[in-house]
Design goal:
Layout: E1 6-7, E2 10-11, E3 21-27, E4 32-39, E5 42-46, H1 53-62, E6 66-71, H2 83-90, E7 93-97, E8 107-109, E9 114-117, E10 120-126, E11 135-139, E12 144-148, E13 151-152, E14 155-156, H3 166-177, E15 185-188, E16 198-199, H4 200-206, H5 216-223, H6 234-241, E17 261-262, E18 268-270, H7 272-277, E19 283-286, E20 305-306, H8 309-315, E21 325-328, H9 333-344, E22 350-353, H10 356-363, H11 365-369
Parallel strand pairs: 5-6, 6-7, 7-8, 12-15, 18-22, 19-20, 19-21, 21-22
Antiparallel strand pairs: 1-2, 3-4, 4-5, 9-10, 10-11, 11-12, 13-14, 15-16, 17-18
Helix pairs in contact: 3-5
Length: 380
């Protein structure tokens, strides 16, 4: 049996906790943190941002995860949640405090709710105060917690709207969050100074609003005199988040010309198999050096235009605009940069050939038969 820390005569769960994938993501516009947790291929997203859907969806696909839950710590006032978009893309269940009675919630959350993913789980703790429906999500071994806007790094969420209550927030922090082990890592919903995480012990000692010897009177007096302007997005965000981020208008469909998927690095990607079956519908731009196109192993795609990446900016006018442009190189790295350059010059229908010529040789039916793998049909 592994040796671990013993608590109350029993080994702590942390000593035996199954492995877990964890990512912290950031939206610069609203200074919002989104968190991805996964175990055994099942994932949970906490506090998604609507505009970051493509980024987060790409990460989920690239890590080959099944998104089972999308959770929000509260009804946000500074950004619109991406929960509805994630449900449309992955079939994930939307979780939000039952007390807010929002439309579109699949899993109403309350104090004590257990949200399982793979071999792990998040435990819901009610922490009202910033708003009446605020929740904190505690990992099953109490090694980390996601505090939303309840407790921030060296701060606390404002209490002057959405049924906020400074007295309730003080008790939520002191009696619920500060009751966790000192070593528990706390991940907030926002930070405006580049900080990423803190611990229970740090905040107990150093939080200027609620730490140290601060009592409830001190805290309420501090919070009642912040004098902050209302969030700029409140009139848009709150109504939208009461519908879990479902938009009034139809969400724009993916590009009609082909199955383009945006990578986590914000590169539009398209698979070789589709391109090989639709070669007459696209313009293939080969950005390798001329000598590479004569490589007997990789060759070149039939009819592709040869234009080295280093010359693309100066010669971009030579690239036709009548068809979608698929950029290609040996591995897909240089051609990814080609898509950036093309988009900068107004090309809207553009994609990178995923995996470049290496993937083309592996997956393309044309490559398997030898058709399209020579240097024929170059458009210089």
């Amino acid at each position: 049996m592994p040796i671990g820390k013993w608590i109350g005569g029993y080994p702590s769960f942390r000593a035996y906790a199954p492995a877990m994938l964890f990512r912290q993501l950031f939206d610069a516009t609203s200074s919002t943190y989104t968190y991805l947790l996964a175990s055994r291929g099942e994932a949970v997203l906490v506090d998604t941002v609507y505009e970051q859907h493509a980024r987060d969806a790409a990460l989920i696909r690239e890590l080959d995860l099944t998104l089972v839950h999308t959770l929000d710590t509260h009804v946000h006032a500074d950004h619109v949640t991406g929960a509805w978009r994630m449900k449309q893309a992955f079939g994930s269940r939307i979780g939000l405090a039952a007390s807010v009675e929002a439309d579109g919630v699949d899993t109403p959350l309350a104090d004590g709710t257990r949200v399982a993913f793979g071999e792990r789980a998040l435990l819901v703790r009610a922490t009202p105060g910033h708003t009446s429906g605020c929740l904190t999500f505690v990992l099953d071994d109490e090694s980390m917690a996601f505090t939303g806007d309840c407790l921030l790094i060296r701060g606390a969420g404002r209490t002057d709207f959405q049924e906020g209550d400074a007295h309730a927030l003080y008790r939520s922090i002191r009696e619920v969050i500060f009751a966790l082990p000192e070593s528990s890592v706390l991940y907030p919903g926002h930070d405006y100074s580049g900080r990423t995480a803190t611990t229970v012990g740090e905040e107990r000692r150093h939080n200027p609003r609620v730490g140290g010897a601060a009592n409830e009177t001190d805290f309420v007096g501090y919070m009642d005199n912040l004098g902050l302007p209302h969030p700029k997005q409140i009139d848009i965000a709150v109504p939208a988040n009461m519908k879990c981020g479902r938009p009034e208008a139809e969400v724009p469909a993916p590009p009609a010309w082909g199955p383009v998927v945006w990578s986590y690095a914000s590169v539009p990607e398209i698979e070789a198999e589709w391109v090989s079956a639709h070669l007459d519908e696209v313009h293939v731009l080969d950005v390798r050096q001329p000598s590479e196109r004569g490589d007997p192993e990789l060759g070149a795609i039939e009819g592709s235009q040869a234009l080295p990446l280093g010359e693309l900016t100066a010669r971009v006018a030579e690239v036709p605009r009548d068809k979608p442009v698929v950029a290609v190189c040996r591995s897909g790295r240089r051609s990814a940069q080609a898509t950036v350059i093309l988009r900068r010059h107004g090309f809207e229908r553009v994609a990178n050939l995923t995996g470049g010529m290496i993937r083309w040789r592996e997956q393309s039916p044309l490559a398997e038969t030898g058709i399209g793998c020579g240097s024929r049909g170059e458009r210089e």
